[in-house]
Design a protein that fits this description.
- The protein has about 950 residues and is mainly alpha-helical.
- The chain is built from 49 helices and seven strands.
- It has five domains: about 180 residues, Rossmann fold (3-Layer(aba) Sandwich), CATH 3.40.50.300; about 120 residues, Arc Repressor Mutant, subunit A; about 200 residues, Serine Threonine Protein Phosphatase 5, Tetratricopeptide repeat, CATH 1.25.40; about 190 residues, Alpha Horseshoe (Serine Threonine Protein Phosphatase 5, Tetratricopeptide repeat), CATH 1.25.40; about 70 residues, Arc Repressor Mutant, subunit A (Orthogonal Bundle), CATH 1.10.10.10.
- A five-stranded parallel β-sheet has the order 2-3-4-1-5, with helices on both faces.
- The protein is flat, with a radius of gyration of 39 Å.
Length: about 950
């Protein structure tokens, strides 16, 4: 954010350089005896006066006489007054008192003689050089305008510079036409101050051109420097914690614009003040009612105000509005307090009679400063609801605060001003509580909303009311999401303590489940015994929703332990109940479907996980609990990633990052960034975030978070493997698992982690590879699920790569299990490995069907990186190209294990060419080249580019020897 703060500093930034340069050229031309007339056009606030001031300062430095006249409405009736100082003593001689009767044809000769006298006087006074600056010339009297037109027709032959500055909308048509025609004929120079460019706005405000805030400011101000300065001031004020609904304008802006409306007569002033009360749009009838004037008088006043460019017609001809909101706020600030309140009351009645929406009435209800009754509070609540529908939660929060302050106090507790001691009817509580919860769910920034969060509990009805359970659970869940778990636990425990002892009632189920959710968010394990109690109570009371919630939490709890089959059973029961529940019931506690989707992700049921996550996201978007949206989108992205829908996974991860809010769960945000980066690499793109140096990702890996940390580590390790950074992949997994035993990683994720370690160890021919493979197999056998077993088969296959036939069989087994689970990308990877093993075993005919199936799976997944690798593998087996004339030189047998593309990459890489240059040469992405190099290193049992260069040199293979295979061969 710029350090510029005052209006003068903002407007004094280095903008309007083109216009400044043209003014300086005209100024220096005076030294050569060349005069000129400049037509300086621009809307109010565009910078005309500042340009004239700079020109005057430069002329004073060059010691050129300057006459600077600022035209005003006050002197409009004095003929020729704009040229009084320029003419000096000759003014009284050439301009008779009262001016010339120009409107009478009989006086044409006398008028012409007078204009010639004025011209001759100016010619004599400007022989040594002279500058006349006429600011706000649209206010000039008719004779002064006629003098300018005469000078346009008969230019002076002296170094005389005349700058006529005016507003285009207020300039009289004859003068405007004359200036335009003179500019077309080359008799005058037209300088029009249009909107600032985005780059100029960036210079003026100090914001980056890529900053979305700057784009918003530029759009709202339409590039007008004054309005941009005001918008920038408001942005700084709001970011510093100011009220965005504040209507007063700073004094420095008032000094600039107040003269425009300070001298209005009573009727114009009353209509303008009525317009300021009505704010953004109004018609003549509404203005007449608020201003308490007749319609004809109001219509005449509106016409005059439009002529002064204070008001402007709306494009759809439905009324009028202010030239700019800054002008409206300045006028509003001039209205006395009592008169303002009465005017708002009149505006409220006028809008109510026209059936205006509640959002249009709310401002006038608040600012009428009268005691609010039930009808007014209901209108404010409707306004809050409309604000939520228009995606304006800040406005909704404001109207709800007005409602909360307006209810009368309980007379039994006159000194207690808390919400709980106010007199609320049951009907008002039923309307207000859901609105409060929706508003708190919708806002991205929850700072400063503690009063609304506290009101949720204060407004909750007695303990035997179901609405109270919803309020308490929401309050605890939101506090948990904001990292205030201790407060959430206190609220839940107090509520449970108030329930009758013995057989718990049905409303206890959401409270029991929320207690476990609160514990889970703070890295505590779920208490399965308590979850079974909640499940029993829900079934006793026929509570299908509570039963589904208890089952989903049980499934999640068992999925992160060794009871995978129990988790799968409970997840299926929960899914059946949730799928049967209508949205109107499920939206009350959407956290249940949130945990179900994550349980299904852990269990490898990715299609159901993505479906449930997206349904939950739609529910929280339309019915509240918006703070769950990011987690649900991350769940959907994870499901898409594993089911091989690369573009959808990448886009959903980005949507999750965009939906994140201040104070939300950092591990989930880290997982979203890791998912986005991994899928961006698979898409052949650059990640939006540098996850290697992202603090949230680093903290998540170091925190030992049992589930999200492990999932983040797996995504990051996969990305490192795609970049052929095997050491990084190994380090990530071991760090997240707190050592080789992976004690901090849930049992259901350990086979995938051990597969990564086995792949890394096998790639560098480490003796640890069999150990990692064995651990993957043992951990998978305990789970009895296809996905962990598929990872275990992959790990075993990596270790047996030198025994191609045995490795191919294990890769085939993994591909079948990945296919059964709908994991397209991993199935394609396994098929690619099968083909590589079969080629190594000299069975290329058997390899091709696997490659063709892998190519189709890669096409369906949308992963460009995988598609490139398979396409290259589908090329014919490498064969020596035509040899030089001195005899054939076949490729060495050691290189025969490489495919044609791998041999092509190896031959170029052996010369020392960089990865990006190789990619450009072969029309591949750098990621694809890196993957090829990793496979080459593994097949040739080498570890570095230097070793590859030595091997290629010893073998005598390189591009110069013709080994390189042309593209498409």
């Amino acid at each position: 954010m710029s350090t510029v703060s005052t209006l003068g500093e903002l407007l004094g930034q280095d903008v309007r350089n083109t216009e400044r340069r043209r003014m300086r050229i005209a100024l220096h031309a005076l030294g050569a005896g060349q005069g000129k007339i400049i037509d300086l056009l621009g809307d109010p606030g565009s910078g005309k006066t500042r340009l004239l001031g700079e020109l005057s300062s430069n002329a004073a430095y060059l010691r050129i006489p300057v006459v600077h006249h600022h035209c005003t409405e006050f002197w409009k009736g004095v003929s020729g007054f704009a040229f009084r100082e320029a003419l000096g003593d000759a003014f009284t001689r050439v301009v008779p008192p009262g001016g010339a009767p120009m409107t009478q044809p009989a006086s044409a000769d006398r008028t012409l003689r007078m204009l010639d006298d004025v011209r001759e006087s100016l010619r004599k006074r400007s022989r040594a050089g002279m500058i006349v600056l006429l600011d706000d010339f649209h206010w000039a009297d008719p004779l002064s305008q006629e003098i300018v037109r005469h000078l346009l027709r008969f230019p002076l032959d002296t170094p005389f510079l005349l700058v006529v500055s005016a507003r285009p909308l207020q300039t009289p048509p004859p003068l405007r036409d004359s200036l335009r025609q003179a500019a077309a004929l080359g008799l005058a120079e037209r300088i029009e101050l249009g909107p600032l460019s985005l780059a100029e706005s960036a210079v003026m405000t100090g914001l980056s051109p890529c900053d979305e805030r700057l784009k918003t400011l530029h759009r709202e101000s339409e590039g007008n420097p004054l309005y941009l300065a005001y918008a920038h001031h408001e942005l700084r004020r709001v970011e510093a914690g100011g009220d965005p609904r504040e209507l007063s304008a700073p004094e420095e802006f008032a000094t600039t614009l107040s003269p425009e409306f300070a001298g209005l007569d009573e009727s114009l002033s009353r209509v303008l003040q009525a317009a300021a009360v009505l704010c953004d749009r109004f018609d003549v009838d509404m203005l007449a009612e608020v201003a308490r004037l007749g319609r004809s008088e109001t219509c005449a006043a509106v016409t005059a105000l439009v002529g002064r460019d204070l008001l402007r017609p709306l494009p759809d001809c439905s009324g009028h509005t202010f030239r700019h909101v800054l002008l409206q706020r300045l006028v509003y600030g001039t209205i006395p307090t009592c008169a303002r309140s009465f005017a708002h009351a009149r505006a409220l009645r006028a809008l109510e009679s026209r059936g205006a929406p509640a959002s249009a009435l709310a401002t006038h209800i608040e600012r009428a400063e009268a005691e609010l009754g039930p009808a007014e509070r209901q209108t404010l609540m409707r306004a809050a609801e409309e604000s939520l529908e228009n995606d304006a939660p800040q406005d909704a929060a404001h109207w709800l605060r007005v409602v909360l302050r307006s209810a009368p106090h309980d007379v039994s507790a006159p000194h207690d001003v808390s919400t709980s001691r106010r007199q609320w009817s049951r009907a008002e509580r039923v309307l207000l509580l859901p609105l409060l919860m929706r508003t708190l769910s919708a806002g991205r920034d929850l700072s400063g909303r503690s009063d609304l969060l506290r009101a949720v509990i204060d407004l909750a009805p007695e303990r035997d009311d179901p609405l109270r359970v919803r309020a308490v659970v929401f309050h605890a869940l939101l506090q948990t999401a904001l990292g205030q778990g201790s407060n959430a636990r206190v609220v839940i425990e107090n509520e449970l303590a108030g329930l009758p002892s013995g057989r718990l009632p049905g409303p206890a189920v959401p409270l029991l489940l929320q207690r476990e959710i609160t514990a889970l968010f703070h890295n505590s394990s779920l208490n399965q015994r308590r979850l079974h109690v909640a499940l029993r109570i829900a079934r006793e009371h026929g509570d299908a929703r509570g039963e589904a919630g208890a089952l989903s939490l049980l499934a999640y709890a068992e999925a992160v332990t060794d009871d995978a089959m129990g988790a799968l059973h409970h997840a299926e029961l929960s899914a059946a109940l949730i799928d049967a529940l209508p949205d109107d019931e499920l939206c009350v506690f959407p956290e249940y479907i949130h945990f179900l989707s994550w349980a299904e992700n852990l269990l490898g049921v990715f299609e159901r996980a993505s479906r449930h996550a997206l349904r939950g996201a739609a529910l929280v978007h339309t019915h509240g609990r918006g703070f769950l949206l990011s987690g649900l989108l991350v769940s959907a992205s994870f499901a898409y990633t594993n089911s091989g829908k690369v573009p959808q996974a990448r886009d959903t991860a980005r949507a999750a990052l965009a939906a994140g809010r201040e104070g939300e769960d950092l591990p989930l945000r880290a997982l979203a960034r890791a998912l986005e980066a991994c899928n961006a690499l698979m898409s052949g793109e650059e990640p939006a975030v540098d996850v290697e140096n992202d603090q949230a990702v680093t903290d998540t890996l170091a925190s030992g978070h049992p589930t999200v940390g492990a999932l983040t580590a797996l995504c990051l390790a996969h990305g490192a493997r795609l970049r052929n950074d095997m050491a990084r992949a190994e380090s990530i997994v071991l760090t997240a698992g707190n050592g080789a035993a992976l004690t901090t990683i849930p049992a259901i994720l350990r086979p995938a982690c051990y597969e990564t370690l086995a792949a890394v160890a096998a790639a560098v021919d480490s003796p640890l590879a069999p150990r990692w493979s064995w651990r993957a197999k043992v951990s998978a056998e305990r789970l009895h699920l296809p996905v962990p077993r598929a990872y275990a088969s992959l790990a075993q296959a990596h270790v047996l790569r030198k025994r191609s036939t045995a490795a191919a069989e294990l890769y085939r087994r993994a591909a079948c299990m990945f296919s059964w689970s709908g994991m397209l990308v991993l199935q394609a990877w396994a098929l690619l490995e099968i083909a590589s093993c079969l080629e190594s075993a000299r069975r290329p005919d058997e390899a091709r069907p696997h490659l063709e199936l892998a190519a189709e799976l890669a096409r369906q997944s949308g992963g460009r990186l995988l598609s490139d690798l398979i396409r290259d593998a589908l090329e014919p087996a490498s064969a020596p190209a035509p040899a030089p004339v001195d005899g054939p030189r076949p490729a060495p047998a050691a290189l025969s294990v490489l495919t044609s593309r791998e041999l092509e990459v190896a031959s170029i890489a052996g010369t020392g060419m960089k990865t990006r240059d190789i990619a450009d040469e072969l029309h591949l992405s750098p990621r694809t080249v890196e993957v090829h190099l990793g496979r080459i290193y593994r097949k040739l049992n080498i570890r570095s580019r230097a070793a590859l260069a030595r091997m290629m040199a010893e073998a005598g293979v390189g591009p110069a020897l013709g080994v390189r295979v042309p593209r498409g061969a």
